[in-house]
Structures are given as C-alpha cells and as structure tokens.
Write a structure and sequence with these properties.
Elements: H1 9-16, E1 18-22, E2 25-33, E3 43-48, E4 57-60, E5 63-67, E6 72-73, E7 78-84, E8 87-93, E9 96-105, E10 107-109, E11 116-118, E12 123-129, E13 142-145, E14 148-156, E15 162-169, H2 186-189, E16 195-199, E17 204-208, E18 212-214, E19 217-221, E20 224-225, E21 231-235, E22 241-243, E23 248-251, E24 255-263, E25 266-278, E26 285-290, E27 294-296, E28 300-309, E29 312-314, E30 319-325, E31 334-339, E32 343-348, E33 358-365, E34 372-380
Parallel strand pairs: 17-25, 27-34
Antiparallel strand pairs: 1-2, 1-4, 2-3, 3-7, 4-5, 5-7, 6-7, 8-9, 9-12, 10-11, 12-15, 13-14, 14-15, 16-19, 18-23, 19-20, 21-24, 22-23, 24-25, 26-28, 28-29, 28-32, 30-33, 31-32, 33-34
Amino acid sequence: MTRSIETMMDFFLREKGELIHINGVKQTALIRDAVDKIQLGDEKIVRAATLLHIGDFIDYRNERYLITSEIDHNKQSYRSRIRKCNYNIAFNWNGNVKWFDAIVEGKTFSIDDGKMISMPEGTIHVYLQDNADTRAITLSQRFYNTHQPFKVEGIDRTVNGIIKLSCSLGSISTPYDDVENNIADRWKYEASHTYALTIDNGTTANVLINDILQLNCTVIDDDHPISNPSITFSSSDPSVVSVDNEGKVMGIEAGQAMITARLTYYPDVQDTIQITTVETMTHTYTISLTGNPTIKIGQSTSYVSHIYDNGTEVFDQSVQWSLRNQEDTTPIMGSITASTGNSSTVKAGSSSGYINKYIVLIATLTSDPTITIEKMIQLKSLL
C-alpha cells in the first residue's frame, strides 16, 4: 500500500528541509516554487513543522518573504504561499522614520482566469505585515517608492495579518523630501545628524558550536549616546554563524562569518565583527574604549577600557595607558592626569595653537602588550 506523503513529512523536513527564519526564529522548512495556474517568479510554497500565520516574515536564502495565503495544516506540518518582498518603504511620522519590507505591485491578477489586469496609471498596491507600526499608517500619508512620491488613498485590513494600501502617484515636496533616499518629509523634521555605531565586543571573537555570544553595541549621535537604538544584525554565512534581531550570535558549524550591525533606519551606519566557530575555546582578547572623541583645551575627560575575551567582557585583565600626538610630534598636547587599570583621565593642553589638532589615547593590555587600541581625540576651542 502506498504511504501518504503527509505521513512522511517529518522525514522530509528532517532530511530535505532548508534553513529559514520565521519572524527571526530559526526553523527548518521545505520550500518550492508555487505551481498552479497563476505563476509568479517571486512566489513559493513553504511547508514547516511549526505554526504559520498570515503576515509572518520568512527569511530564505537572503531574501525576505511574506506569508500571503491561508494556512493549510495537518498533524505533521503547516503549508502556505509566500511572496517575496520586493521593496523597502519608509513612512515618516513627524520625524520618526520607520522602514518596512513590502510587496509593491502596479498590476493585479484576475482570480478567475489568471490574467494580469492593469490598474489606473500611477496607482500601486502595497502589502505590509499587520503590526503596531503599520497600523499607525493613515489615509493621505505620503511615502516614496523608486524615487516617486505616493499618497495612501485606501487601507484594507480585512485579511488578518496583512494590511493592503491602495496608493496613487503624488507630488514632490522639494524643500522637505529626500528623493534620493526615498524618505518623504525628511528635511521637514530632521536636523543634521552624525551617527556612529560600534560593536563593543571588538573586531574578532570565537564562539563554541551550539553556544551563544551576545553582541553589544554603542550608538552615538554628534558625540551623544543614544539609548535603545534600533539595530539590524546580519551574518555573511548563517549556516556557520547565525544572529538574531537582538544580537545573539550562535555557532552552527566550524568556520568563520562576518556579523554586521547596522542602524535600522540609517543602514550605511554600521560596524562588523568576525566570528569564528570553534570546538574548543582559547583566549582571544580585544579592547574597546568609551569616552568623548573631543576635549576642549585646558579641560579634562575620562575614558574607560572594556576588555573582552572571545567577545565576552572580562574583569580580570587591565591595560596600561599612554598618550601621543597624532603626528608623533612633541611636546604632547595633553596629559594623563589619573589612571587605573580600567580608566584614565586625559587633560588637553591650554595653548590655542592646539585647537582642532588630535591626540591619540592608547590602551595596551597588561598581560599581552601586542594587543592595543587607539582612540583619536580632537582638541576643541572653549567657545
């Protein structure tokens, strides 16, 4: 007697399943191209042992998909249709810009005969995951797609898990819109920012197979720390090292991968760390320095060293502090007035000739002088 394929799903998922992430959580699933009367290159069928919902995000082979159909399920698995998100769209709420993975279409399908139906010129449909952020979108709200302005004309929330926007081509607000970066009204609310993001765990770290390393990041805006920044993490090879939306890194199998942390709404602001997955751990120390990158002449600022062993901060190591001019000239345009194994206080010289020049603070690991880190510090006017 022929065995039903449904009863063999556990076997297929275990033996033939591929790695995906469902709303950021790693899972195994079977993925195939959608095969029916309506065929689209960006549509696939997903089958997984875990519960699926309309509107779930599926990350598969470095692409993001949205579950768009009802869920078919049996005792062994859940099955649904997914469509690739083909655009990333920004909505602006009085200066609070948020980006959304979206499906944007300028044409739609006839359910009866599978033919393409053209919508009025300048009209698009946008499909978004239904969540707290997208529920804040309102009628007449403006956004950009492919450097063209659109206005929300209709909002359809009849399908649980998905919001469908009907949108028409609008007009450019020349003084305020950032057309190049597809952000409506950006300059209406946003002042000039200088963001910087640093992964505090250093530039390299090791992680044991099946173990977890927590990445910590510091984000500053014009030298001022930002609390609870929105950061997106990614791995150059998720089959070797995975990372979730909270910066938890897991070693999957022996090898190396580069983890990138980006400011979610300013993805050009980023930092990287090379993670090596190992079977046994040896010491790998790195140092990071925190403190203001500027000092006014004649004044003092404190700096703190953080020492990491394989990306995890340790407190049984110390550093030696030193100072030099950027151009290695003398005399040194500042001094270390106080120091411990973990912190130092640097005082800038008082000469007006030092303004806008740089000194370099150096921290050297006491137990291994080959491990150092330098921090450039600009001397500024008192005004």
